[in-house]
Design goal:
With 411 residues, the protein is of the alpha/beta class. The protein contains 10 helices and 16 strands. Strands 1, 2, 6, 7, 8, 9, 15 and 16 form an 8-stranded mixed sheet that branches. It has an 8-stranded mixed sheet with strand order 4-5-3-11-12-13-10-14. Bound molecules: flavin-adenine dinucleotide and pyrrole-2-carboxylate. Flavin-adenine dinucleotide (FAD) binds next to helix 1, helix 2, strand 10 and strand 14.
């Protein structure tokens, strides 16, 4: 008896691509450099709110493979100063609207953030920040050790610790989201609106028409552009320096790590600037831990082991039960920091060139607001009222927005 030829197994339909990778055209009205969260959100708002659809987002690697893929997704708006409260507050409002607006569930989980304090001075600073938050309509309160123990039972608030927990600021609306889903949601909507998303296309310099930017030089040839917006976190000054424009930025590695999957034990986000670690538990169950930047400058997406050791020691001090967890993966991104730990968003002295940079350790939470105000800036040539204070001129006038205290992760 002849055997039947083996049948090809029935394969499931491949998932529909969320966006369509594009080939570069010769020119665009607007070129955005960097397909991280900020670049994608900017392209989305250019198309959605300004009707500017002849837009390309150029990405040197793969879509959202930079800090967008590497961050620990903490979203909060409990900053000290009015300018920050306005910007991050707007971002939090938009985060709440985005799942419906973008028609994508990116698992926004408003589980609240505790920013712990361990000394008298930190208590004073935290109370000041909570009062300032209240004046700006931000939901924040100061809580003592008993309330902290209720909010986060796995945290050790006993008084005999080396650095006892003396209190915390608590922002209930803060939380986490799934960063890769956010990127896909933005890419899909931008693509649907006609934006070209171009991967493996590194921008190496600019095409000039006199004093005005007329395009970009890329690893795939020159691309003409009416306007260029840089959203190339960590690498912005390397680009502007090709034009002789020096920005007050320094690039550093910033690391994070995760444990294996565990039962859900950790109900909120906890950050301690003092012992220096922060921790949340991801939707799937990994403990997600991070701390401050590695102190040396560099563009390498890797950091030093001693930084990881210190944050693990701090984590075990705060959460003794985590001593039984295992580190599964560590990684780093490259962040660019400014002297006042606040971003730069605005026009540059070079006509047609706009920058969004200097987000340091905290730009994920700002993604929706950045997209909106940077799109406004690129579309109209002038800052939106929310990013007006964040221009380059503040480093000349001295009107700095010093958020080192509320940055919560050391710059
Ligand atoms: P990116 O995703 O880095 O996008 C920039 C893109 O530009 C990259 O894809 C890059 O490849 C591309 N690019 C660069 N140069 C070029 C070029 N020449 N040509 C073409 N493309 C180029 N923020 C928070 O608010 N909460 C957090 O919990 C948090 N945790 C963090 C943890 C870590 C470990 C790190 C590294 C960062 C964290 N951040 C956090 C900061 C946040 O990730 C960044 O501020 C934010 O992602 C920056 O904006 P972006 O998403 O556009 O950056
Ligand atoms: O800005 O809240 C923050 C943050 C948390 C982790 C990294 N940055």
């Amino acid at each position: 008896m002849r055997s039947r030829p083996p049948q090809a197994p029935e394969l499931p339909e491949p998932p529909a691509r969320l966006w369509r990778p594009a080939e570069p055209k010769r020119g665009y009205d607007v070129v955005i450099v960097g397909a991280g969260g900020h670049g994608l959100a900017t392209a989305y708002y250019l198309a959605q709110e300004h009707g500017i659809r002849d837009v390309a987002v150029l990405e040197r690697g793969w879509l959202a493979g930079g800090n967008m893929a590497r961050n620990t997704t903490i979203i909060r708006s409990n900053y000290l100063l009015d300018e920050s409260a306005a910007l991050y507050g707007h971002a939090l409002d938009l985060w709440e609207r985005w799942p419906t607006e973008l028609d994508h569930d990116f698992l926004l989980s408003q589980r609240g953030v505790l920013n712990l304090v361990h000394t008298e001075q930190e208590i004073r600073d935290a109370r000041r920040r909570v009062f300032a938050n209240g004046l700006n309509g931000i939901d924040a309160e100061f809580v003592g050790p008993e309330e902290i123990a209720e909010l986060c039972p796995v945290l050790d608030v006993s008084p005999h610790k080396r650095y006892p927990v003396r209190g915390a600021t608590w922002q209930p609306r803060a939380g986490i989201a799934k960063h890769d889903h956010v990127a896909w949601a933005l890419a899909r909507r931008a693509d649907q609106l006609g934006v070209d998303l171009i991967e493996n296309c590194e921008v190496t310099g600019f095409v000039m028409d006199g004093a005005r930017v007329a395009g970009v030089r890329t690893s795939r040839g020159d691309i003409a552009a009416g306007r260029v917006g840089l959203a190339a976190a960590g690498r912005t000054s390397a680009l502007t320096e090709t034009l002789g424009l020096r920005l007050p930025l320094q690039s550093h590695p910033l690391q994070a790590m995760v444990s294996e999957l565990l039962e859900q034990v950790h109900p909120c986000v906890v950050m301690s600037n003092h012992v220096h670690v922060y921790c949340s538990q991801a939707h799937k169950g990994e403990l997600v831990l991070g701390a401050g930047i590695d102190t040396y400058n560099g563009y390498g997406q890797r950091g030093s082991v001693h930084v990881l050791e210190q944050q693990l020691a701090a984590a075990v001090e705060l959460f003794p039960m985590f001593a039984r967890a295992h580190v599964i993966r560590t990684w780093a991104g490259v962040v660019d920091v400014t002297p006042d730990a606040s971003p730069i968003i605005g026009p540059t002295p070079v006509e047609g060139l706009f920058v969004n940079c200097g987000w340091g350790t905290g730009g994920f939470k700002a993604t929706p607001a950045v997209g909106r105000v940077f799109a406004h800036t690129v579309a109209t040539g002038a800052p939106h009222p929310l990013n007006e204070p964040y221009g380059l001129e503040r480093f000349r006038t001295g009107a700095l927005i010093d958020e080192h205290g509320a940055a919560a992760v050391a710059h």
